[in-house]
Design goal:
Length: 334
């Protein structure tokens, strides 16, 4: 559709231009590969499956490089761990049972497992293959901004974060809550960091500007006579209730929050990152129970798609600090 010149994608059976229902950015990314292969959809898809995982590997390498303090070996390991295993996609499930721990974690490191996989775990379109090209850079640039809160980095991070509105509903919703909570926490805990606060609110302003066309499109969409029928087809959960059945997720968030305190917050150089990870964990609690405020929520089982990769990075960051502390203590003892 986009390759044929229709952007944003519209109804194939109508000539008139209607509001866009689905996020336009993932099909726009895929259409670039179809363009390169001169309109051959199958070949374009195969090229995307070859190129995009390599880019995702580089993104995980980048994140590992930052979290493990520029250690090349660890960065390469994190890159392969991210792209060749399902761990970043379903991190929370690892801790919910022994079977999950064995199937998701141990089997990916045991050489006796020789199961042939026709596709990588990241090969599904739109999520996670295409959405990760936007979400992972948004996370990485935000982490860089915490260390170097400069205007150019703030503008770049906010530009990429703003694109999440056009990528995946659950991801931008979660990332918006993270931003709000982190901004509030920074005002209280980082009030002396004037440069960071100034550029943080620059980020908020830029994201707001980028999101305006999205919300205008949604407002226009809501005015259509068939909007109510469309909403019902999305699988909306209605009612104001607390999601008690997600308690294993909540317990994991609290345990990770404690680990962040012991291994990051107590290190003065990593306090900003600790506040950011706390904001991410608090936002996870909020989005799981968004229906308490909104009275409805679409596809609540999709929230882990935005949260689990964050949990993966938090565990890596805590693990990096733990190893650093352990090595220093061993060196002191000898």
């Amino acid at each position: 559709e986009i390759y044929d010149g229709h952007f944003p994608p519209k109804d194939l059976f109508l000539d008139q231009s209607l509001p866009n229902i689905y996020p336009p950015l993932p099909p726009l990314i895929l259409s670039a590969f179809i363009f390169v292969t001169q309109g051959d959809v199958v070949t374009g898809y195969l090229v995307a499956l070859f190129v995009i995982p390599a880019l995702i590997f580089l993104l995980f390498f980048w994140l590992g490089w930052m979290l493990f303090e520029r250690k090349l070996t660890w960065a390469v390991f994190i890159g392969f761990l991210g792209i060749l295993t399902p761990i970043p996609l379903i991190t929370s499930q690892i801790f919910f049972s022994l079977d999950n721990f064995v199937n998701i974690f141990l089997k990916n490191f045991y050489p006796g497992i020789n199961t042939l996989l026709p596709l990588l775990f990241w090969s599904r379109i739109d999520y996670p293959l295409l959405t990760s090209l936007v979400y992972l850079p948004a996370i990485a640039l935000t982490v860089i901004f915490l260390e170097k809160p400069r205007p150019l980095i703030a503008l770049t991070a906010s530009a990429v974060s703003g694109l999440l509105f056009y990528t995946y509903f659950h991801i931008w919703s979660y990332w918006l809550v993270v931003g709000v909570i982190f901004a509030g926490g920074a005002l209280v805990l980082l009030r002396k960091e004037r440069t960071l606060l100034r550029n943080l609110f620059l980020m908020v302003f830029v994201v707001f500007l980028i999101s305006l066309p999205y919300f205008f499109n949604q407002f226009t969409l809501s005015r259509l006579p068939s909007y109510g029928e469309y909403i019902n087809r999305l699988g909306i959960e209605r009612g104001s209730f607390f999601r008690w059945e997600a308690w294993p997720h909540y317990l994991l968030y609290f345990l990770l929050a404690g680990a962040v305190y012991f291994f990051l917050w107590r290190d003065s150089k990593k306090r900003k990152r600790a506040i950011f990870w706390w904001a991410c964990l608090a936002a996870a609690l909020v989005v799981w129970n968004a229906q308490l405020v909104l009275g409805f929520v679409p596809h609540s089982d999709h929230w882990p798609r935005s949260i689990d990769v964050i949990l993966f990075l938090i565990i890596l960051d805590v693990g990096s600090s733990f190893l650093h502390t352990l090595i220093n203590r061993r060196a002191w003892l000898t």
